[in-house]
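Format notes (please read before filing issues)

Several people have asked whether sequences and structure tokens are stored in separate files. They are not. Every record keeps both together, in the order shown below: the sequence lines, then the token lines. Line labels are part of the format and must not be stripped during preprocessing.
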Amino acid sequence: MKSNEVIYAKNSAVILLDQTKLPFDLEYLTLTNYRETARAIRNMNLRGAGTVGVAAGYAMAQAFSEFSEIEKILQAKAEIESTRPTAQNLFYSTNLVYFRAISAKNRVKAAWKTADSILKSDIRSTKMIGEFGAELIEDGFGILTHCNAGKLAIQGYGSALAPIYIAFAQGKKDIFVFVDETRPRLQGSRLTAWELAQVKIPHAIIVDNAAGYYMQKGKVNIVFVGADRISANGDVANKIGTYEKAVLAKENNIPFYVAAPSSTIDMKCKTGSEIKIEERGSKEVREVFGKLVANETSDVLNPAFDITPAKFITGIITEKGIHKPDELNTEF
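Then the structure lines:
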């Protein structure tokens, strides 16, 4: 799977791989205006902080193609930003496209050029993240992942999967990946496992509740996760369940690393307590692939993300290197 097979632009349309159909079908959506692209972000036809950022950048470019009035462009920007409120890359992209284009002589051309640059930057950054992170992996390592932070989630090599891809390509032997299923949307069992199977990296899907068991048994040597937003003090917002894995890793003396491009770091956000957590609908929990799997009359709480405090994080891997969480204030 190549980067341009996940999301790209063609003639003012956004073409994307519909991740809700994986791993069973490869289907693409053609989104012809910013509202369609925003709807695809909200409905999670695409997901992952990086891919959401690229899509948001393209949605902004579509808005510039559709409107000349600044008021309407700003309305479109607000609509795009409302789709996934936790993901920092989304806001990074909408702001970058808007401010570069609004002052340009040819706004439409500048908007599309900037949106394209976001995708290209992700491809470069993820390779470097992978190279830095691969240095942490030794022959025979058991690696735990949570959610999907691979090529589907951010263009190029992914973030949390990038070190694994690079280490495997380098010929490191007998590495094995424990893939958390990641309820309720099963991004681990549907997407991460699918990605690893494409390149024949040894792995097994485990239920979310089994991660502690394998840590306690000494089967897990390192944990890699992605991030949707990183605050200035090193707290990390990521898929719900990440905090639990970090606490378990600390208890079992297992290094816990967060991998993300520097665009995921929000220096205006002082701590994780300031990060807005997206709450999603009850249907995601009550149903799996349209089949009811829970008591229909019970209330459902469905936070999409949680906050992992910096004290549980061994290091944050970006395209600039591996950083201690408390170093972000001085390095970014």
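For reference, the curators noted about this record: The domain at 129-331 is CATH 3.40.50.10470 (Rossmann fold). The chain has a mean pLDDT of 95.
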